[in-house]
Amino acid sequence: MGVQYIYPEYEIVRNQERCIVCRVCERQCANEAHEYLKDSNKMVSDDAKCVNCHRCVALCPTRALKIVKSPHTFKENSNWSGKAINEIYKQAESGGVLLSSMGNPENYPVYFDKILLNASQVTNPSIDPLREPMETRVFLGAKPEKIERDEKGRLIRNLPPQIQLSMPIMFSAMSYGSISYNAHESLARAAAELGILYNTGEGGLHEDFYKYGKHTIVQVASGRFGVHKAYLNSGAAIEIKMGQGAKPGIGGHLPGEKIGRDISRTRMIPEGTDAISPAPHHDIYSIEDLRQLVYSLKEATNYEKPVIVKIAAVHNVAAIASGIARSGADMIAIDGFRGGTGAAPTRIRDHVGLPIELALASVDKRLRDEGIRNRVSIIVGGSIRSSADVVKAVALGADAVYIGTAALIALGCHLCRSCHTGKCNWGIATQREDLVKRLNPNIGYKRLVNLLTAWQHEIKEMMGGMGINSIEALKGNRLMLRGVGLNEKELEILGIKHAGE
Amino acid sequence: MREGMFRNPSGCAISGIISKSGKRFSGERIIKSIAVMHERSNGLGGGFTAYGIYPEYKDFYAFHIFYDDNMAKKECETFLEKHFDIINLSRIPTRKIPEITDEPLIWRYFVSPLPTKLAASQLDEREYVVRCVFRINTAIKGAYVFSSGKNMGVFKAVGFPEDVGRFYKLEEYEGYCFTAHGRYPTNTPGWWGGAHPFALLDYSVVHNGEISSYDANRRAIEMYGYKCTLLTDTEVIAYMIDYLHRRIGLNFDEICHVFAAPFWSTIEGKPKQEREELKFLRNVFASQLITGPFSIIVGFEGGMMALNDRLKLRSMVVGEKDDMVYVASEEAAIRVIQSDLDKVWSPMGGEGVIINVEEGKY
Questions:
Q1: Could you confirm whether B228 is annotated as catalytic?
Q2: Which residues form the Glutamine amidotransferase type-2 domain (chain B) (predicted)?
Q3: Which of A47, A63, B9, B139 is geometrically suited to a Cys-Cys bond with B210, CB 3.0 to 4.6 A?
C-alpha cells in the first residue's frame, strides 16, 4: 500500500451473533463495502469503501450493524490534524483538486445558535396558536412606492408580480442531474401541497413537472442549460443564479456519465457530454449587464414573473445587494457559506464566503439605510436547519428562507457528503436507476410536507410566545433577538442587543 | 435616565370626546372622564390634546415646547427665527399645584414658515415643518417640541392626568375634540417629553398597550426619514399615521385596515373588490401591521379615529349622544360625563371607528 495508504475514517462493526446473513447490506451498498463469503457463510466488510451513509445500518433487519469512528490516529498534533495530513497524501498521489459535497462542515461560529428569542410576560399577552389565528402567509416581490387611485378614488392595485407563500420557506435550487428525478418529483409535489415554491436549479425542467409550474421557480444559471421560452414562462418566478454559497466565485461541473437520455433532453445538451457552468455568466461582467439580463427575462415573460437574483454571501455582500436592488430585480436570494452542494472543491467550500446571519443583517440594514428595502424581497439560505433558524432569520430581516439540505435529510439523506461520487444509496444524489427507485416520491413528498407542517406549527408557537400573530410583524423585528456570547462588533453587525440588556 | 434611552412598555387609560357638529366645549369634561380611570395610571405621565382651541391663530402652526433651561430656549428661538415668522409667543399658562413639580420651561409659539426658506427647501409646507421639528428635537439639547399642529395643542406632564389638566388650566380652553391619556409605565423616566399624547403636525395619538411589532414598525418607518427617539409605541404609531395619511395618501379607513389588518381567513370571505383591496393593503403595507395589544385614539384636524388590535386585547368602549361621540378605555369614563347615551358599544378587534366633524364646522 505504501505512503499513500489512508486508514479508513470509519469502521463497520458487525455483530456476528445477530447477523443472519440475509445479504441486505450487500445488496444495498452501491459502494460495495459488504461481501458474502460463501465458504464460511459469513458477511464481511471493507471499511475503506464505506462512506458512512447508514443505508445498511438502517435496513439491517437484526440491527447487527453500526458505523463507528475509527480510533486509529496519528500522533497527536494541534496543528497537523489527521485530516490535513491525509489530504496531503491524497493530493501527492493524484495531483488533483480535492472535492467535497454538501455544506461546509468546519468549526466556524454558527450565529443562529448564539441568538435567543423573546417571549411575552405580564405587560403583553402571549397568544395561543391553537385558540387564535396565527398567520404565516407572506408575499415576495417589489412593493410600489406610491399609491394610485382611479376616478372613483378607489385604490389601483399597481403591484409588480408577486409570489404568495403559505409560510416563509421555499425549497432551494437543486438541479435535475445533481439530484434524481424522484427527488425532484418529491419536492415539486410537496411545494404544491404546502402552498410554497421549489426551485428547478440550473438543469432545466423535466417535461413531466411543468404541471407544478405555479409552485416552481425556474433557474437561469451561467450554463443556461434547458433555458427556453416555454421554460421561462412555466414557473411562478425566474431566478438568475450568480453564485452559490458552497462555492462562491466558481462554476459547476456535472460529469458526462450523469448525462443520460432524460437529463440530456432536459438540459438540451448531447448525451454523455460534461455539463459545465462557467464561473461567471459570460454576458454579465458587471452590474449594468445584470440589469440587461433581468430585463431580457422580463421581456421574454411579458413582465408577469418576478426575477430573483441569487448570490453567494461574500465580503462585499451589502454593496452588491444594493446594486442588485437597483437593477430591476424583484428579490435577492443570498446563500451563506454553509450552503450545500452536489460537488465543490473542498478548499473553496471550506474557506470562501460569509455566515448567512451576518450577510443577512448587513444587507437588510444597508437596503434600509438607502431607503430601498421595499424594492426587493430578501430570501436567505445556507444553512437553515430548523424552525428556530427560520424565526431568527425573519426577525433579522429576511422575507423568506430557502432550505436545501434540510429537505434532503427529510428525504433520507444522512449527510455522508459523498454526492460527488454519484452513488447515493438513498436515491437522492444519483442518476443510477436502481438507486433512484429507492426513493419513493409518494413517501418522499409526504415526508417533506410533514417536515414543513411541523416547522409551521413551531413557528406559530414561537410567534405566539412573542405576542405576534402575523409573520409580517416579525420581519426585521430585531428587538425580539438577543445575542449570547457575542462580542460588540458581532452584535453591531447583527443589529441586536446582548442577552440581559 | 429619560425616554429614548431604553424601551419603556406601559399600560394606560385613554379617553376621547368629539362633537360631530364642531361645537366647542370646555376641557373640564375630558379631565372628569380620565380622572375616573385613576387606577389605570400610576402618576408617571398624563396629558391631553385639544382641537379647535386657537381659532384666532388657526392659520399658524402652534408649537408647544419644553425647555430644560434658558440656554436651550435661546438656541431654539434662534433656530425658529431663522426658519419661521413668529406671530406670537408666550409662556403656556399654568397653575402651581403640589401634585405637579419640577416643571420645565413651557412655551408656545404661533409660527408660519418663512416663504423664502420654504421655497429654497423645495418641500411642501407640512414636510418643512416636520423637518424643523425633528431638527429641534434631535439637535438642540434641552429643547423639545411636543405639539406642532394648527388650531390644536398638546398639554402633558409627569403626574396623574387629572392633575396635569388642572396644572394646564385645561378648563379654560374650548375645543371641538379632546383626547386624554393616563400612563402606567413599567419604568420611571420622569421626563415630561415622554408623557403622552404624542403628536406631529395635527396628528395626535393616545395609546394603551404594548405592541409586539414595535421594532418591525420602527425599522420600517425609519427608512422614510423618521427618527424614533423615544422608543415608545405611541411615537412609532404617530409616525406611521403621518406617513400613511399625509405622505402616502391613505384615508383613515384604509389606515385601520393596515394597522389592524383583517385575518386572511376574513379577507378570503369578502366580495371580490373588497377582498382585492384588503389584500393589496396588507401586502404593500405589511411593515405597518401592528400586533400585540393596543387601543388607540388618533386625533386629526376635523376628526378622531379609535381602533383596537385585531384580537381586542385591550378594552375600548364607544358611546354616542346627539352629536357627541365618546371613546374610553372603560365605559365608566363615558358615563361620568354623559349618563344618558343614545348608543354604547365595544368595537370589535380591528374595527375602526372614524368620526368626522361636518365639513366647514371646524
A1: no
A2: 12-362
A3: B9
